[in-house]
Amino acid sequence: MSAALLQALRETVGAAQVFTHDDPGADLSAWEQDWRKRARGRALAVVRPGSTAEVAAVVRACAAAGASIVPQGGNTGLVVGSVPDESGTQVVLSLTRLNAVRAIDPANLTMTVEAGCVLQNLQEAAEKAGFLLPLSLAAEGSCTIGGNLATNAGGTQVVRYGNARELCLGLEVVTAQGEVWHGLTGLRKDNTGYDLRDLFIGSEGTLGVITAATLKLYPLPAARLTAWAAVPTLDAAVSLLGLAHQNLGAGLTGFEVMGQFALSLVDRHCPTLRVPLWTDSPYCVLLENSDNESEAHARGQFERLLETAFEQGLVSDAVVAESLAQAHGLWHIRESIPLAQAEEGLNIKHDISIPVSRIPAFCAETDALLQREIPGVRLVNFGHLGDGNLHYNVQAPVGEDAKKFLKEEESRINGLVFDAVARYDGSISAEHGVGSLKADHLPHYKDPVALGLMRAIKQALDPQQIMNPGRVLVRP
Amino acid sequence: MSAALLQALRETVGAAQVFTHDDPGADLSAWEQDWRKRARGRALAVVRPGSTAEVAAVVRACAAAGASIVPQGGNTGLVVGSVPDESGTQVVLSLTRLNAVRAIDPANLTMTVEAGCVLQNLQEAAEKAGFLLPLSLAAEGSCTIGGNLATNAGGTQVVRYGNARELCLGLEVVTAQGEVWHGLTGLRKDNTGYDLRDLFIGSEGTLGVITAATLKLYPLPAARLTAWAAVPTLDAAVSLLGLAHQNLGAGLTGFEVMGQFALSLVDRHCPTLRVPLWTDSPYCVLLENSDNESEAHARGQFERLLETAFEQGLVSDAVVAESLAQAHGLWHIRESIPLAQAEEGLNIKHDISIPVSRIPAFCAETDALLQREIPGVRLVNFGHLGDGNLHYNVQAPVGEDAKKFLKEEESRINGLVFDAVARYDGSISAEHGVGSLKADHLPHYKDPVALGLMRAIKQALDPQQIMNPGRVLVRP
């Protein structure tokens, strides 16, 4: 059976675009190993179609053979959603050869791109045409837009521009039956039926394969300024966010929070970086103000905001970057936290969201709970406060073996954190998705009626259960 | 059978909240007649539950009896989607008693409201709390938020804030089985599964009943200014839109276009209104600039924009409203077009969208086509140019009997316009939805794979086909 399928795949995309373990010198690890090295699978084959029609033909061949398909873009996902399982029966469908920018429409403020385009290339193509593609995240140098959409990626500008979902107007999708839905609309308004676009976005390849998308573009801001502020409490950070919304309006394009311990790790492990204002404050905040007018105007707004915040006791000290280089430096500190944390040792990662108003109480309660349960535990707390999204990571107490700590405590700590998240009406996956890493947790934390609806939709669109099975929803 | 159902409904919501034609002095016309008086149905009963639990019980009772349900809010829809058919067997489920604002969360910038709340009441509740609920449309004094979400309403501020869908974070929904999905999240980020929210939004009551929603709020702008500009061509209007995006950024909260004939009707039929600048230009444009800083700042931005536009030949003349009263007056002219048009006589209405960049070519081609086919036909063209959304309405030639014209020509003119829309990659329903008025058109203009996916979802979530049958999708 698998020989016949491989033959069919080779006929579809050409033998040079089908990779198997039987190839001389075969090394499929780039496709089989997940980004965080949490799981290593074994594929029947890796197939790299060169067009939407070829993607459709691959899906039809797999469907005819009853073989499962694992769509893959840049393979930078964090929840083990884009690598095959260990069965050796799954076909990895790599989209990276579909990497054309099909069109940029300046007057419509849209660009139409193929799924395999690397995000950073799209940001640059947009900028070259005079526009901003606002999706921006750590993996942008290697992740693909198809993966960004399949996982509804978030990132650092969500507070202004929304997630990947909000940046997408239209999709081209290959269904689980190998048909092509031509939904590449550039329309801002289209009320002719159910919102299929948003259903495929965030479905992590379990309902079909996104092959192209039409994305929103924005005018390039005239200036972008960054400020760094020390805040006395998390409550103050939340109040500062409200003040920033009020004063900057849509100019507020970034609002990140960083706990003192997280910044201490950057200070310790990244000696070339000078972390400002962290020693005397429990939290620091990074703000970005994008202005359509001028740098002087942006700076005036920023200074008024910080002055008011200082007067209200929301900020104890602050700096506004004087140059682009300084601004990049401040963002670089924020982005170095995961690396510094890895240097400190293995840790238990969480990607949670909580209503912004309840974050201070959530952190106070959960910090205390974890300290009670595991004395000496260290919390690396940072994230996109503007979106209510925290990367609430847990590091072993000083001196403890991190590997042993993870093995023994990860499951219990996940339970404690997720239960707390549930008490605060939060989400156990804010921006990373479910994949297979969190699929088992969903039945405990997701509304049962919602789960039932999801299963009904999965069954309706992929009755053969061949699209990325076991991801998002555990196998029936 | 129907007697047993009526009995069950009375036990569920109380006899006083069940209305039938057998009641003494019964008049169900407010629920049975659609807003535009295109169709009059006959209900088995009108039921007004007072809570989500009662809505669920009503749906279960109807499901047990195999009776169809027609959810209804303010009954202001324009596509005959919320009134019963003529069979006398359908139950109208009126949501108007679910009209509580459940919560306003200032720090999270959200409000949680019940489906039956009138939109204007919600705008006022938000403003009282110091925030803006940006959804705004002509029917806001009587439409309900449940209906706005069920139809993914658009309106006048979509260019900045998006449609109803983009303003909603969470939903509470009663499924076709009478279960309650508790999805009232106030989270900006939640990637734990399929996007059920956006699936129910815009599904026009055919998949379930929206009973409550959590909506996004925004800071109130410090100032809102309105300008009115005469433009030499539709091309110039599109270029002016691009310039406004560039100069005002997110401050651009409104961009409406109005054709000369549309304005001439306001001039003729609304003698108390003084329509500016319309006599010498084929189109006028209404722009709104919302500013988080000050009126002086907004005015400066506006003046610079219009100056540049004037220099580039995009604007031949313009006025900026000097007061709030003047601004309201300009908007009032725009909003009087449908009324003035009705005074002129019956007409054929279209609610279409086209990629903004292609609107000038679409209008040139379609205007000429209609003139060729029906000499003397008059085009009342106006709409939300910022969203690519035109109300491209067709009025009988001078002196012709409008009723006769509609009867003889409506179907042919719809076909001509819709075919042109399809050639320009547009949508035959931008913001009004499908209802039963356009359900027959969908199979001709919607991608067949998309239609197949929609049918599969409908079958999966409402296998009994009791939720607003025949709307959006024609009966199988």
Q: What's the end-to-end separation of chain A, in Å?
A: 24 Å
Oligomeric state: homodimer
Give Rg of chain A in angstroms: 23 Å
Point out poorly predicted stretches of chain A. Answer: none
The fraction of residues in strands of chain A falls at 15-25%
Mean pLDDT of chain A: 97
Family (chains A, B): Belongs to the FAD-binding oxidoreductase/transferase type 4 family.
Domain FAD-binding PCMH-type (chains A, B): 39-220
Keywords (chains A, B): FAD, Flavoprotein
Organism (chains A, B): Hydrogenophaga laconesensis
Structure description:
- The structure is a homodimer of 476-residue chains.
- Chain A is built from 16 helices and 19 strands.
- In chain A, helix 9 packs across helix 12 (337-344).
- In chain A, the strands form four sheets. In chain A, strands 12, 13, 14, 15, 16, 17, 18 and 19 form an eight-stranded antiparallel β-sheet that branches. In chain A, strands 5-6-10-8-9 form a five-stranded antiparallel β-sheet, sandwiched between helices. In chain A, strands 1-2-4-3 form a four-stranded mixed β-sheet.
- The first copy, chain A, has four domains: 2-94, 2-Layer Sandwich (Uridine Diphospho-n-acetylenolpyruvylglucosamine Reductase, domain 2), CATH 3.30.43.10; 101-219, 2-Layer Sandwich (Uridine Diphospho-n-acetylenolpyruvylglucosamine Reductase, domain 3); 223-338, Alpha-Beta Plaits (2-Layer Sandwich); 345-423, Alpha-Beta Plaits.
- The model of chain A has no long low-confidence stretch (mean pLDDT 97).
- Chain A starts with a helix and ends in a 15-residue tail after the last helix.
- The first copy, chain A, has helices at 2-13, 29-32, 52-65, 119-128, 145-150, 158-161, 196-200, 234-248, 260-269, 295-311, 324-335, 337-344, 359-373, 402-423, 442-445, 448-461; strands at residues 18-19, 43-47, 69-72, 90-94, 101-105, 110-114, 131-132, 168-175, 180-183, 208-216, 218-219, 223-231, 252-259, 283-291, 317-320, 347-348, 352-353, 378-384, 389-395.
- Chain A has 476 residues and is an alpha+beta fold.
- In chain A, 36% of the residues lie in helices and 21% in strands.
- Chains A and B meet through helix 6, strand 9, helix 7, strand 11 and helix 8 of A and helix 6, strand 9, helix 7, strand 11 and helix 8 of B.
- Chains A, B: This is FAD/FMN-containing dehydrogenase.
- Chains A, B: Pfam families: FAD-oxidase_C, FAD_binding_4.
- Chains A, B: Keywords: FAD, Flavoprotein.
